[in-house]
Amino acid sequence: MRGADVSRDPCPWVILNDAGGAFAMGAIGGGVWHFIKGARNSPFGERFRGGAHAMRARGPIIGGNFAVWGSMFSTFECVLKGVRHKEDPWNAIGSGAITGGILAARNGWRAATVSAVFGGVLLALIEGVGIAMSRAFAQQPPMIAPPPSS
């Protein structure tokens, strides 16, 4: 594939890698979130125990939700790379839209459409910021002075 990112694993493996990374990120972030929430909602002498209980109960669930989103996103991104024979930001934007729409499909067409638009816009913003940051921090070539006139 022309313009392929050779620093990443091939498509079947990147799906598993992204699912695992998303699970870890969701479990850690959800664990911290629910530890704080559980500690705040516990009586004064039981705050640590309540936070730990909430973290153990809800952290893996949030991690699983993140893993489902990450694996679906990576799967659709690989499909779009294969169909389009290109690796560009449109693959990520389309993958975000498809993933958002499919995950909300159980709530009806209207919710699926809203989630698909939101997923596409969110990924477009993320890709746009990534492109802007890479251009802003890219090494500029040195200026070459014009030859002296004689």
Mean pLDDT: 90
User: How helical, in percent, are the residues?
Assistant: over 70%
Count of DSSP-assigned helices: 4
Overall number of strands? 0
What are the segments in which pLDDT stays under 50 over at least 5 consecutive residues?
A: none
Strand content: under 5%
Distance between the termini: 50 Å
The assigned structural class equals mainly alpha
Order of secondary-structure elements: HHHH
Using only CA atoms, what is the Rg?
22 Å
The outline comes out as extended
The largest sheet, given as strand count, sense and whether it forms a barrel, is: none
Question: What this model shows, in words?
Answer:
It is a single chain. The protein has 150 residues and is mostly helical. The relative contact order is 0.10. The chain contains four helices and no strands. The chain starts with 10 loop residues before the first helix and ends in a 14-residue tail after the last helix. It has helices at 11-40, 47-84, 89-103, 109-136. It is extended and about 85 Å long.
Fold blueprint:
Elements: H1 11-40, H2 47-84, H3 89-103, H4 109-136
Quickly list its features:
single chain, 150 residues, mainly alpha, 4 helices, 74% helix, extended
Quick gist of this model?
The protein has 150 residues and is mainly alpha-helical.
